[in-house]
Amino acid sequence: MHNQNPVFIPGPTNMPEALRRAVDMPTMDHRSAGFKDILHPALNGVKQVLKSETAEVFLFPSTGSGGWETALSNTLSKGDKVLACENGMFSQKWIDMCQRHGLEVEVVSVPWGQGIPAHRYEEILSADSGHEIKAVLATHNETATGVVSNIAAVRAAINAAAHPALLFVDGVSSIGSMDFRMDAWGVDVAITGSQKGFMLPAGLAIAAFSPKAAAMIETATLPRWYFDIRDMRAGYAVNGFPYTPPVGMINGLKMSTEMLLSEGLENVFARHARIAEGVRKAVAAWDMPLYAQSPELYSNSVSAIKTPEGFDANEIVTLASEKYDTAFGAGLGQVAGKLFRIGHLGSLPDVLALAGIATAEMCMKDLGLAITLGSGVAAAQEHYRTV
What we know:
By secondary structure, this protein is of the alpha/beta class. Helices cover 40% and strands 16% of the residues. It has helices at residues 17-23, 36-49, 64-73, 89-100, 118-127, 151-160, 211-215, 229-237, 247-263, 265-285, 314-324, 350-366, 375-386, and strands at 7-8, 56-61, 81-86, 104-109, 133-139, 141-142, 147-148, 166-170, 189-193, 204-209, 302-306, 327-330, 339-343. The protein is globular, with a radius of gyration of 21 Å. The two termini are 35 Å apart.
């Protein structure tokens, strides 16, 4: 076993050596004057990646799930109603979190593999004449199924219904890899984590609040302490934290945003689209379907590949790990055993993508699937050579 590096899971992602070294820094006194030179550039860098002029960015020692809780607990009160779509494992988990917080959730359930039906949101919000719904939840990229939803369409649905509900977006596996426009899309809270598009270890929850969302802190009554943005804001004002910060992780985030912005966000997104399309061409050469049900839903950060009926896709993941020291993503929840996932986000150039495709082919061939060795690799190679 060689630590399964590179990995082809949808996060944590492969780390550029420069970022690994940025995180691995000597101990710093987080109350010293030097901390501000790490903290504030990291916050500002995230804001630029989100394409926002007005957002307040908050960093918590946590993961994206902590970002979900930050959004809820700082804006809502027990008994408040929220609208959410359940179309995969992670949207399902966020709904569960809402319910455990005593929120009333109106759930729009669609088959896994489909995106958020914005038209249903518009119908429900238009019927909510009393404005009981306080927030709309949207998972931008459903990591379990490789499905990306149209957040601009969700905002358009809210606007068409003339509804004042806040828009919360889980961008954990999209932000930093795919175009995200917080201001243009009218996102009130954007949530992500350090371990995907930012190419860092897991350990930071990143939550960005619009002015409208941040104002809700004055009336929200859900319990909060660790995730209280008021305390975090007060800490930032004096160049500190309300508790001990993960200095190395924040230093890594500072450098990560510098790398993304230096490459140019549009170039970052084009690179992800190009690598993803190569993987999709390989999947087509294998004559296997993606779990996402139509091309406009295809994710540029993870592809979920449906295996033949009766075949346990977990065998591919297990064999890749045990025989080839390579990590692929397993199916989660109701799609467990029905698909395997290839993550293609973060630090993943053509050559590494081809290595992952080749390994997947060897595993499937070893397990008796009707795969022609080299077919997917050749399809991806042709794409990478010419695009």
